[in-house]
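Deviations from the work plan: none for this task. Representative record:
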Amino acid sequence: MGKQYKLIHCTVNGRAREVMVDVRASLTDLLRNDFRLTSVKKGCEVGECGACNVIIDGECFNSCIYLAVWADGKDILTLEGLEGPGGEISDIQQAFIDEAAVQCGFCTPGAIMSAVEILNEGRLLSDEEIRIRMSGHLCRCTGYENIFRAVKKTMLKRLEARQREQGTGNREQE
Amino acid sequence: MYDIKALYEAESVQDAIRLLQEHPKAQIIAGGSDVLVQIREGRRAGAELVSIFGIDEMRGVCYDEDQAIRIGSLTSFSHIAASPIIQEKIPVLGEAVSLVGGPQIRNIGTIGGNTCNGVTSADSASTLMAWDAIVELHGPEGVRRLPIRDFYIKAGVVDLKPAELQTAILIPKAAYEGYYGRYIKYAMREAMDIANLGCSVNAKLSEDKRTIIDARVAYGVAGPVPMRAPSAEAMARGRAVCRETVDAFARAVLDDIHPRDSWRAAKAFREHIAVELAKRALTESIERAGGVIDG
Ligand SMILES: Cc1cc2nc3c(=O)[nH]c(=O)nc-3n(C[C@H](O)[C@H](O)[C@H](O)COP(=O)(O)OP(=O)(O)OC[C@H]3O[C@@H](n4cnc5c(N)ncnc54)[C@H](O)[C@@H]3O)c2cc1C
Ligand code: FES
Ligand code: FES
């Protein structure tokens, strides 16, 4: 059997893409090599560390153990897709900086994508729930506490902001 | 790049059967969280694969016409845990699969893969055993259904005939109605760890909550495949809800299980833990069923 390829269509960070993929490629290979999205790290490449974590149709997946051909028809978000219209970084990225949740940075993009999945739910999670939801990431530097604080802080900030907005909204209606 | 010889993508169950017939050496890949890791390790390097990942008809949890709970084999662990049906009728299954790996693994790992791999430590397997699950298989000859107990043949080997795939796991109404359960995974870490021992217990109590009408217990890692402990079940069935019953039940598991020494844990330690977990899991099952022990 010679080399085998498949033409796939997917959305990556909001942009429609059409690409020919080698059936042997992982999604990590596709995102890094074809799209130069190097926030997607190759850590263990066996699904253990979370460095390659990306969001597919709203859920987190370790892209190292996800075949590139499976991305056909999917909506994929990597850390690069968090960039604001003026090139600014997102609140969760800023919180990672503020809380010193980044040291060498290798685990950071993957961890932030898990945080994004949690934050997108728009609800209040207990400390225990946050820890469980972030447990698919190995960090050799920070000891996790700063990562936990960055996620919790951003969650609370967003919920507060939403409450304020709803508060003004109600007043306007009155 | 993975060392994959060829990949065939199935679009439906029938398509998968046809591809498996056309390529008799090909192996099924569902979520790939076992298969891809084994290719990386070299154990399955150079494999021909039939991907069933795209068969959406094999996803989801619903009731079938007999009120049995039907879990599509491709349903991910996180979708099982989030299913309102599972949360209402068999919350313990949602709890068990929420102990698999970490969040990303629970998004990709499927219950079909977790049972077809024939692995004794599989976190869903002991609970499925303990709830008398039925496995549905589709192959060239049509459909067949068999109790999950008979599905396991030996370590790593299940009863899948050539070109057959598992399409669903069913829990009959009689097997879930009135039962309350608890799964305890004994491992060294709370995430990303394989069980040293897994114990799933459930119980059904009489209306006055004083008698155990039925109790079922199954273990992972207490033998080469997940297994029930019938001697223990017999010690509890029809007995009064009390501490003595729970203790007798827990002691009796040693008549059934045969764990082994491994680098993860010694046989004697596993036996000790097995009794303790049985005690705790039955106690909690009884409490969940509304029973009170020694009261
Ligand atoms: C980092 C990591 C941590 C893990 N932690 C745990 C854990 O804590 N507990 C646990 O139980 N497991 C764990 N696993 C193992 C794995 O995630 C599970 O066994 C999972 O359920 C496998 O499902 P899958 O769909 O990915 O299977 P695949 O890898 O696609 O397949 C597994 C096997 O089943 C066969 N198969 C799959 N689906 C079918 C089907 N429908 N019909 C016929 N054959 C089929 C395949 O041919 C293969 O032999 C872990 C894996 C990783 C990578
Ligand atoms: S590189 Fe994918 S989980 Fe480690
Ligand atoms: S910051 Fe270095 S691994 Fe997490």
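The interface with chain B takes residues 1, 4, 6, 22-26, 29, 45-48, 50, 53, 59-62, 65-67, 69-70, 114, 132-133, 135-137 of chain A (CB under 8 Å).
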